[in-house]
Amino acid sequence: MFRLAFIGFGTVGQGLAELLLKKEEVLRDRFGFEWRAVAISDMLKGSVYDPDGLDLAQLLETVQRTGRVDEYPAPTKGWDSLQTIRDTNANAIVEVTYTDVQTGEPALTHCRTAFEAGKHVVTTNKGPVVLAYRELVELAAAHGVQFRFEGTVMSGTPALRLAQNDLAGAVIHGFRGILNGTTNYILTQMEAGQSYAEALRQAQALGYAEAVPDADVEGWDAAGKVVILANVLLGADLRVSDVEREGITGITPEAVAAAGADGERWKLIGSGRWEGDRFVARVQPERLPLADPLAGVGGPINAVTFDTDTLGGVTLVGPGAGRTATGYALLGDLLDIHRH
User: Which residues are catalytic?
Assistant: First the structure.
């Protein structure tokens, strides 16, 4: 039985909660996966704990109606995130807080605390994986628990699991991919005739881009994902500063039109591969021929091509963001821990 504590209960946490309720019978009957939500701690919405289990459907309704977690009638309220991790009877922590990607906090401390308490962690926060992947994996192993973070790269599209499980018999020499849906949407709209400014405004209106979009359009988000893929799958030891980085702000409508006239299409590509004993990692706009599998990926969609010794290029395409997709990443991680 998985006893879950949600640390953070915003869009992503609620997305997982909805999936757990919707798929409860299938998860139990098909996979023998049983769960109980026992605690939620959210910096803005409050916290609740019931060792016998929370009524997750009622709790979701309460949050949607009041905006608060602690309006739900639970025997214990008011614990902060660290007390919730340490002192509840949860055995798996769902870490989905708002986190500073530069410092990895508070998610990094949450992960360390959970492992030291002997509890599994699933998270969608890139910061801890980018900054402290090896430390966290070793700490989890030392305490006999597991660490899963599929949602840090392509949301619910299983790039890490594909490489680690289904491509386990192949050697992956490198990867290249569209790892940021916001920039892919902007470039797709520019190809349809919009200016960069118009496409950015539309992306912001649709919720694809933040009010300050630098993390996306300057390539920082994609660079973090390159670091995760490189370190987790190819044994590199990169930091974000090691990634050669260029965003899309310099791409003009004229450049988009010129590429189209030559049968090519602009994409922001994150890539990495070993060149001798040096790992080369980049995020940069590239003109791709239309025959390239990545060229046909439009809108806010992500894709990655793994270069393997056995199968050649293997390309995975799917959603890279969204409430349900990211919630599904967490569900897949919990199932992966259950299987192992």
Answer: 225
Is the model's pTM score more than 0.90?
yes
How high is the pLDDT of residue 9? 97
Instruction: Encode 158-172 in three state secondary structure.
Output: CHHHHHHHHCCCCCE
Question: Is there a contact between 53 and 37 (Cβ–Cβ < 8 Å)?
Answer: yes
Query: Reduced to 3 states, what is the DSSP secondary structure of residue 186?
Result: helix
- Which portions of the chain are predicted below pLDDT 50? none
pLDDT for 255 equals 97
Contact by Cβ (8 Å): 326, 197: no
In angstroms, the CA 13 to CA 27 distance is: 18
Q: What is the pLDDT of residue 210?
A: 84
Task: Put residue 280 in one of left, alpha, beta given phi > 0 → left and psi -120 to 50 → alpha.
Answer: beta
Residue 190 burial (CB count, 10 A): 22
- pLDDT of 15: 96
End-to-end C-alpha distance for the chain, whole angstroms: 14
Quote the pLDDT of residue 32: 97
Q: What gap in Å lies between CA 93 and CA 212, rounded to an integer?
A: 30
Instruction: Name residue 148's amino acid.
Output: R
Q: Is the peptide bond before 106 cis (omega within 30 degrees of 0)?
A: yes
**Residue 134 confidence (pLDDT):** 97
pLDDT at 102: 86
Within the chain, residue ranges assigned H as helices are 11-22, 24-31, 56-66, 81-87, 107-116, 126-142, 151-154, 159-161, 181-191, 196-205, 214-217, 220-233, 253-261, 323-339
Give the integer Cα–Cα distance in Å for 186 and 165.
33
Helices and strands, number each (H, E), in the chain: 14, 13
